[in-house]
Amino acid sequence: MKMYKNVVMGLLLSTALAGCSMFGGDDVATGTSDGVNGVSTGGASTSGVSDGSSFSGHPLDNPASPLSTKVIYFAFDSSAVEPQYEAVLAAHGAYLAANAGVSVIVEGHADERGTREYNVALSEKRAKTVQNLLSLQGAGENQTEAVALGEEKPVAIGHDESAWRLNRRVELIYPAH
Length: 177
Description:
Elements: H1 2-22, E1 71-73, H2 86-98, E2 104-108, H3 116-136, E3 144-148, H4 161-167, E4 169-173
Parallel strand pairs: 2-3
Antiparallel strand pairs: 1-4, 2-4
Helix pairs in contact: 1-2, 2-3
Membrane topology: Lipid-anchor
Keywords: Cell cycle, Cell division, Cell outer membrane, Lipoprotein, Membrane, Palmitate, Signal
Protein name: Peptidoglycan-associated lipoprotein
């Protein structure tokens, strides 16, 4: 079963990377109906090697690269990664695989609904799902740390869907960056 998952994730990575080069440097919005799930793709290198674009900064900051997306949003009561984030996570996994000295904190969050215990468990599932996807792309065990914060660190204050949508997330935090 694990070999099957590796083959499927490899195919997803190949498709995602082919799709990125197909669009050149144009931004492609792949948001869902909630309007917060935009992903920019482009020809940026995931290893930090120049790809011929005019961007000369750190690869994690290149707005034309999926690496610039460091927040993954989730549906209500779900730890499943939405399809529009597959290329983003493939790029981050490849970046980590190519840069063994780099590490990332995978910080899981939930909205305010549910008990504290439930929200911590859900945010942990989200963080571990993302962590597993990064490892399937080659990130080493020592490169990722999953942290579950539940509802304790909201980015949007409010008691409606527009706030809750932004709080259901995983953040990829590169401490050395």
